[in-house]
Write a structure and sequence with these properties.
By secondary structure, the protein is an alpha+beta fold. Helix content is 54%, strand content 18%. The chain contains four helices and three strands, in the order ααββααβ. Strands 1-2-3 form a three-stranded mixed sheet. A hairpin with a 2-residue loop joins strand 1 and strand 2. The radius of gyration is 17 Å and the shape is elongated. The relative contact order is 0.15.
């Protein structure tokens, strides 16, 4: 009987990401969605829609004041998101 090489779980998962980078991106997008309530705090309740496509995070909010505040914080939000994810997933944030 042939013995197989023991592989650490982290190594096995990392090889999956190498084989399917789209799956890895989708995992990061899900982690991003889970992180938004913590990141935005009380402003999260004004969030109506979250979309992510090709490095652009689109946040639709129902309050003009929250839209303006998030606009002021755009660069900081992007830095925090990418830092939390450990990857440069978000290249631009569009708030509308």
């Amino acid at each position: 009987m042939k013995q197989s090489k023991t592989v650490l779980l982290g190594e096995a998962i990392a090889s999956l990401w190498d084989d399917d980078p789209d799956m890895y991106e989708q995992l990061l997008v899900h982690r991003l969605r889970d992180y938004l309530p913590e990141l935005l705090g009380p402003m999260y309740r004004w969030l109506q829609e979250v979309r992510f496509d090709e490095g652009v995070l689109r946040l639709q909010v129902s309050s003009p004041a929250v839209r303006q505040e998030l606009g002021f914080q755009q660069a900081e939000l992007q830095r925090k998101i990418n830092g939390y994810l450990g990857a440069e997933l978000v290249r631009f944030i569009q708030i509308y």
